[in-house]
Amino acid sequence: MLTRDNISCKITVADNTTETPDVSVQFYGGSEETALAEAVVFQWFLTTDATAQVLSTDGTDTSEIAIETNGAILVEDVTDVLGVAITEATGLADFTVTVVTAKQAVLNVVMPNGKLEQSDVMTYTAG
User: Fold this and answer.
1) In whole angstroms, what is the distance from residue 52 CA to residue 33 CA?
2) What's domain 7-124's superfamily in CATH?
3) pLDDT digits over 31-54, tens only?
4) CA–CA distance, 61 with 107 (Å, rounded to integer)
5) What pTM does this model have?
6) Is the Cβ–Cβ distance between 41 and 73 less than 8 Å?
7) How far is CA 91 from CA 18, 36, 103, 118, in A?
8) Any residues with CB less than 8 A from the CB of 100 and at least 6 apart, and which?
9) Whole-angstrom Cα distance, residue 105 to residue 56?
10) What tens digit of pLDDT does each residue of 64-90 get?
11) Per-domain residue ranges for the chain?
């Protein structure tokens, strides 16, 4: 039986050298071997640091976070910085995060048990 203590997630950043990296959030039941076969509602927020203590500033650090193809953003408490999302029935949500040139961002997901999962640091440097 799933409980708030045996749900895990893996956050994967693809195309980290582009201005708009793709970020997938996959929830698992128990271990990272069995993807959930149900939707998960979760809180997310963007920070500029890996300690999750400095919120990103919309327009300064990041300029957009949007769902790519899986899941939906239900509400943005702070536009493009903090909100609530829901996965597809497969436990998957994927985002596109627009990182401002020479800035960095980390996607943070608050797990049902209150623990924090974080993406790799996303950094974009215009070439």
Assistant:
1) 27
2) Immunoglobulins (2.60.40.10)
3) 667 888 899 999 999 999 989 999
4) 13
5) 0.91
6) no
7) 26, 5, 30, 17
8) 59, 60, 61, 62, 63, 124
9) 7
10) 999 999 999 999 999 999 999 999 999
11) 7-124
